[in-house]
Amino acid sequence: MGEGHKVHGKGQNDIYMCKVDVALNSTEAKSALDPSIRVHYGSTSGATLTSRQISNSVGKTPDETCQRAFLSAVKRFQSTAHRKKAKSVHLVSYFDKVTKGGNEYECHIATFNSRVVLKGSFH
After folding, report:
1. Measured between alpha carbons, how far is 97 from 93 in angstroms, rounded to an integer?
2. pLDDT by residue for the chain (123 residues), tens digit each?
3. CA-CA distance, 40 to 119, in Å (whole number)?
4. What is the DSSP string of 54-111?
5. What is the Cα–Cα distance from 92 to 107, expressed in whole angstroms?
6. How far apart are CA 93 and CA 71, in angstroms?
């Protein structure tokens, strides 16, 4: 852990930027995600969907709670991809309808939960 970094905080609403590769290569990801549906991060194309995932942050580090919310969102995209018979999902962070690709995703942590918003396309 220890990969995320705080970029803004006001009261109990802190914003963290976390490394995508750390989350996708974690032990939790290996057990939760479907290896038959590839995950690409950084850009989307064509029709997109948005997923907002919340994770309980009580007793967890910022990295742990953000990773949990991120992986939950990725898993939802993979489930949709499976139903659409897609072989991969392409994702970006999408808070306040602002796209952020690269190699980090945005995570907001409040008093009791963390939140990740992703936009994705299916291929």
Report:
1. 9
2. 456 666 665 557 899 999 999 999 999 999 999 999 999 999 999 999 999 999 999 999 999 999 999 999 999 999 999 999 999 999 999 999 999 989 999 999 998 999 999 999 999
3. 12
4. EEE-TT--HHHHHHHHHHHHHHHHHHHHHHTT-SEEEEEE-GGG--B-TTEEEEEE-S
5. 12
6. 13
What one-character DSSP code corresponds to residue 37?
A: S
- Residue 29, by phi and psi: left (phi above 0), alpha (psi -120 to 50) or beta? alpha
User: What pTM was computed for the model?
Assistant: 0.91
Residue with tokens 């057990």: 31
Token couple for 81: 């991809």
* Distance of alpha carbon 29 from alpha carbon 78, whole angstroms: 12
Q: In this structure, which amino acid lies at residue 34?
A: D
